[in-house]
Design goal:
With about 160 residues, the protein is mostly helical. Helix content is about 75%, strand content about 0%.
Length: about 160
């Protein structure tokens, strides 16, 4: 019985920590978001030496990246809002008198929306990758994994 209580407490702590992380993004979460391809700095933002400059993109490539980001911007914003709202609802369910099944259902709903958001961001990465030449792809990949190396590189 003690193990079950400890397990439930651990799950509640994880849920609350993810709720807090979404509600109040930290510097670390901003850095991770800034590294995603959908969050590439826009040209003309005065960032010398940023992503775009490092890749030496042509004006056509810049325009294509802008279009890719524009096409998914509303969907990403909508999914992000759904996640924030779902996290708040989950918080309320956990704090209230909801059944275990209701809490689990809300958790699974949030998990699905998070996966949809991640899928959209990944599709953007693939779309951007398609417009880059091999040298640019290499720089793009290096930049994406600069702070978060792929799993194989972490074990060396």
């Amino acid at each position: 019985m003690l193990i079950r209580r400890v397990s439930i407490l651990a799950v509640v702590m994880i849920v609350f920590s993810s709720t807090i992380a979404l509600a109040k993004p930290t510097l670390l979460s901003r850095q991770v978001i800034a590294q995603t391809p959908t969050s590439l700095p826009r040209p003309n933002r005065g960032q010398s030496g940023g992503w775009l400059k490092d890749l030496n993109l042509t004006s056509q490539q810049l325009q294509q990246i802008k279009e890719i980001r524009h096409q998914s911007k509303q969907q990403i914003a909508q999914k992000s809002q759904e996640i924030r709202q779902g996290q708040q609802e989950l918080h309320d369910l956990i704090a209230g008198t909801a059944t275990k099944e209701q809490v689990r259902g809300k958790y699974n709903q949030i998990k699905l929306v998070k996966q949809q958001l991640a899928d959209t961001q990944f599709e953007n990465t693939l779309a951007i990758r398609e417009i880059l030449n091999p040298e640019q792809r290499q720089k793009f990949a290096e930049r994406m994994y600069k702070k978060n190396p792929p799993p194989a590189a972490q074990h060396n």
